[in-house]
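Ticket #639: bound-state structure for iron/sulfur cluster.
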Amino acid sequence: MSQSLTHKLIASHLVSGDLSPGEEIAIRIDQTLTQDVTGVMAFLQFEALDTPRVRTKLSVSYVDHNTLQTGFESADDHRYLQTAAAKFGVHFSRPGNGICHQVHLERFGVPGETLLGSDSHTPTCGGLGMLAIGAGGLDVAAAMAGHPFHLTMPRVTLVHLRGALGPWVTAKDVILELLRRLTVKGGVGRVMEYGGPGVATLTVPQRATITNMGAELGATSSVFPSDARTRAFLRAQGRAEAWAPLRADRGAEYDDVIELDLEALEPLVAQPHSPDNVAPVTELAGLRVDQVAIGSCTNSSYQDLMTVAAMLKGRRVHPEVSLVIAPGSRQVLRMLAANGALETLITAGARILETACGPCIGMGQAPPSGGVTVRSFNRNFPGRTGTRDAKAYLASPEVCAATALAGTLADPREMGEPVKVAMPRRFPVDDSMVLPPAEDPDEVEIVRGPNIAPLPRRGELEDTIRGRVLLEVGDNISTDDIMPAGAEILPLRSNIPAISQYVFCRIAPTFSERAKEAGGGFIVGGVNYGQGSSREHAALAPMALGIRAVLARSFARIHHANLVNFGILPLKLPEDGLVGEGDELAMEDVRARIAAHQPLEVHNVTRGATFQAGYDLTGRQARILLAGGLLNLLREEGG
Ligand code: MIC
Ligand code: SF4
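RESOLUTION: The complex was predicted; output attached.
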């Protein structure tokens, strides 16, 4: 039978299950990546699994998110991660080496292999023809220990590309167009597979921009074929041997097909406060802007920044705009330094930041009060910039550069002839900031700073659950709402008791106090609850506060898995209006019903009514919940 590329990748890694959408499958994981602010938990969990060395083909631990080091906490975390990597057989990418997804694409991604990463933008490497999936840290820890990764077999959507991008139109506009059409929940339960004659017109970094931001569609992953362009990229990275050709069979069947004519696209912008709130730049042109930020795992490649440099050459950044640029990797930065582009950027008035996530995750560069920021990033959820009332717009580096010069949102098409940046024949390869694991693990002592608190644990699932609804929220609540990041909170990622105080702090500042006082309770959400990042802290910290269930209309994939992994019931509300903030709820026979896969009877004591709440749990997820979380189950199974 003719197969899609996605089916081929899954079939070649399948450990259990069959390829029918909605069924639980397990796949073998070849590579993992972790980053610093999910990595500490992942490594603590890996330690709890008592496996002496990782069992993957390759695991890389990156430090890229929290590099500000505003106190001892982050430096301590980095030292823990470095020593743990050395001991457990993991490569360690030092702070300053670059953003995990950019570096992984350049140096480690292998077409045809699987990659599981504790970061939602792990599908970036789908641009190379990998099956790359974002997950919570505990799932990645389990994969490092050699366990297969369990997921629901996705539907496969073919995005059939035709034509070629017009002048000043970019890969960013491709994914913004898909977000405009499909919304932030349009990709849930799907892999977005790219095909058609338009594919050959896109370079690997352009493809990676598209697969990266497939995360914003809520997709399980996004993938491009591996072709001559992929080969050229890998060869230029000195990794020709990693290449293998890969594509869908002729006549492969898909669950749905989206036609996209690259020729017909125009520069687009996502407006506050959601990546799917997309409009053409022409509709927004003239809007006054305070800040422009270029970088992030979406758009910080050599080609992106060379384009920006060419646009800024001989010009000055508008006096009322702060332009910050964070190159995606040390390789990119070195190339800009060697060919003079860095000087061009500095001369034009750009502020050059470290090669890291930086402002994308609110680590500095918070805009002024009520300010407008235009960013080449992938998320513009409220408050993520660090300024609560700032308005963040997302656009291509080209729109960003034109805007930085004009001082108002600008259409790059007004800048004349488009810039053409050729793919280098050879990238300068220097992996000296990636430390290989120790040859003799016994020699390595893991160093733990005082901010690294022990893992919180919970016992097995209770049979009767009672409590109050502590908070009711609306649709599309992101993990940035549940567990914000930023310079104040990110340093506490390895200290769950400390970080728990910040759960929902932006939308319900008293939430954690109320939860503690009540000894736990419930959260009620709308559709697509928990969209966005993979941070398991958005489940782990509520678990530590005693949250036993989240009742919502629907859930985002990674967060749903994280809730299960930490023993919080993700229950589906059959309709709106059944529960409200303050209501007291009671559920009996919880264990027996979960074990028998029956809906729970939820008694709303306050309203004197009862309703049935179902759930989307695989058999394995039910077992995880009964055990009180994945770590408990793995230990039971192991012992
Ligand atoms: C993000 O972009 O939100 C992050 C920060 O990279 C997260 C990971 C995290 O919160 O640690 C993600 O995308 O998974
Ligand atoms: Fe880092 Fe931003 Fe990419 Fe997340 S989205 S990995 S914070 S650059």
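RESOLUTION NOTES: The chain has 21 helices and 27 strands.
TICKET STATUS: resolved
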